[in-house]
Design a protein that fits this description.
mainly alpha, 18 helices, three-stranded antiparallel beta sheet, single chain
């Protein structure tokens, strides 16, 4: 049996079975299997027994197979993005090559944010929000229903702040840095106070405390724990929300829009909202005085236990370890710390899971007179620094490079019009 030779130039280019098989990297029998599954069309050779195939169809299928082989569910391959910001390895993580835990426990959140953005340490750095930006953001946040979630307030505040900045479309490094240094304090200052006091000056952690805790005069150890929590959570490589920010920045969205993209993703229970679930679990254990029945109830209901394990840390989450160490210096945190230890030890009888940062954050919020959603606010405010760092990095890359190709698996066109 002989296959027909390829068509001459200028005509529709057809491939023989052998040529199609070589291009696809398969046996000739597999080419006909593609035909039977509707993935390729064939045409019988006039006067012969062979078949020919549309070269464009074969090339499209070959590209699809290569993508599927490189990134399919069984390959373990994932999207990779060049970055100089955060490295996670061997149960440690680093900001621009420096141990992130050391940075967070020795420097303020503002100083760590500057390090993420510029690679320079600026001791004593504080952030100040423009009065006009805060006024507009506060009015927008105050218009929301009382039950609005933390990320609702932060998203609205971000959008409101953007409307006051006519230079928001300037994506130069200096302009974006200026936006970062004013947006983060605007987000904090726009939030309503938790009690009857609101602090609008001083370090960011002090101002945020007055928005989260009903305790008016926190001790220095509690403020240090909150500040360290912000710094520890400032970035964590390409988490889901950070990837969303980079996609927005790739399309050259301005920094406010990029941060809004991150806030839209962070609200998920497997991301920024996880600490709230851990907070409620912790309170249940505190009320019952024993983790065993609480955990049994959660598992019986088919719920995943929050605050335990992390896919990037086979061992202990370094952020949790650092935050727990600071919380141990706060006498009022002892009951919540004991409850968290009970949760970990009870679970460890059946699964070798360590506490993650969500459980540590839950201890902080539960022992500081904060609402269960406070951890979500801390997480979102903290991560804004990392989002800006990644947006800045993405603005220096080729536009729209974060545009993957879809792997179409639907019916082969053309299909008839539906009736």
């Amino acid at each position: 049996m002989r296959d027909q030779e390829p068509a001459p130039l200028g005509a529709e280019r057809r491939l023989s079975t052998k040529e199609a098989a070589e291009l696809l990297g398969v046996k000739p029998e597999t080419v006909y299997a593609y035909v039977s599954r509707g993935q390729l069309s064939s045409r019988r050779v006039s006067g012969g027994r062979g078949s020919t195939f549309d070269a464009r169809e074969v090339e499209t299928l070959a590209r699809r197979n290569r993508r599927e082989s490189a990134g399919g569910s069984g390959s373990g391959a994932e999207l990779s993005v060049r970055t100089r910001i955060t490295l996670i390895e061997n149960d440690r993580y680093f900001f621009r090559g420096v141990d992130a835990v050391d940075l967070a426990t020795r420097h303020t959140y503002e100083e760590v944010a500057e390090w993420l953005w510029t690679g320079r340490m600026l001791p004593g750095r504080t952030f100040t929000a423009p009065a006009a930006s805060v006024a507009v953001a506060r009015r927008a946040v105050e218009a929301l229903p009382e039950h609005a979630a933390p990320t609702d307030r932060l998203r609205v505040a971000t959008i409101a702040a953007a409307t006051t900045d006519p230079l928001r479309f300037d994506l130069s490094e200096e302009a974006v840095l200026g936006t970062a240094r004013t947006l983060i304090p605007t987000l904090v200052d726009a939030l309503p106070p938790a009690g009857h006091h609101r602090r609008d000056e001083g370090p960011l952690a002090h101002r945020l405390w007055s928005r989260l805790s009903v305790r008016k005069d926190p001790d220095e150890a509690s403020l240090r724990a909150l500040d360290a929590a912000l710094a520890l959570l400032a970035d964590h490589d390409l988490a889901a929300s950070t990837l969303a920010v980079r996609v927005a920045a790739s399309a050259r969205a301005h920094p406010y829009a990029a941060v809004s993209a991150g806030l839209g993703v962070i609200e998920g229970p497997l991301h920024g909202a996880a600490s709230g679930l851990a907070h409620r679990l912790l309170w249940d254990v505190l009320e019952q005085g024993d983790a065993a029945p609480v955990i049994a109830g959660e598992l019986r209901a088919g719920r995943r236990l929050p605050g335990l394990g992390h896919r990037l840390y086979p061992g202990e989450d370094p952020r949790a370890r650092a935050l727990f160490a600071l919380l141990e210096q706060i006498p009022s945190a002892e009951p919540a710390l004991l409850a968290a230890r009970d949760i970990v030890e009870t679970t460890a009888r059946h699964a070798p899971l360590h506490a993650n940062v969500d459980l540590a954050l839950a201890v902080l919020t539960a022992s500081s007179g904060m609402d269960p959603t406070a951890g979500e606010t801390i997480f979102a405010v903290a991560r804004t620094a990392g989002w800006i760092a990644h947006a800045l990095e993405e603005y220096g890359e080729r536009p729209l490079r974060m545009r993957p190709s879809g792997l179409y698996t639907g019916p082969k066109p053309p299909q008839p019009l539906p009736e």
